[in-house]
Amino acid sequence: MILLTLFVAGAAIFFVAHVLLLFTSFGKFDYSRTKYLWSHLTLWICGILLFTATSMYAGKGVSPVLDVFDTRVKQLLIPGVVIVLSIAAHTIVKLLVMPKYQSR
Questions:
Q1: Is 31 helix (H, G, I), strand (E, B) or coil?
Q2: Which residue spans traverse the membrane (predicted)?
Q3: Rg (Cα) of the chain, in Å, rounded?
Q4: Cβ atoms of residues 2 and 53 within 8 Å
Q5: Distance (Å, whole) CA 82 – CA 27
């Protein structure tokens, strides 16, 4: 149970770090490539932690939320969502945010 708590707390911390790094990557006049890279990495780490937690504890009655992911297909939805979020964020940044910095 302690390990599950660590997985979930770690995932929450990495998700908050992802959001903070993503929003602070872009300043008034330029953007930080390093922060932007770390924002993607923290999102992937969050997904890995959640996938690991569901792989270990789903269907065992430990948590009703984790029990939703009781099959491998449902568990693979987690990395699927991470991929979609990552692609969506990258597309938004590429098409909407970066043109602002390139025009200066």
A1: strand
A2: 6-24, 36-57, 77-97
A3: 16
A4: no
A5: 25
Which one has a higher pLDDT value, 10 or 100?
10
Of 53-57, 58-62, 96-100, minimum mean pLDDT range? 96-100
d(CA 99, CA 61): 49
**pLDDT greater than 90 at residue 27:** no
Which structure tokens are listed for 54? 């569901």
User: How many angstroms separate the CA atoms of 80 and 47, rounded?
Assistant: 9
Place of tokens 């993503």: 22
pTM for this model (two decimals)? 0.87
Specify the amino acid at residue 34.
T
| Cβ atoms 70, 59 nearer than 8 A | yes
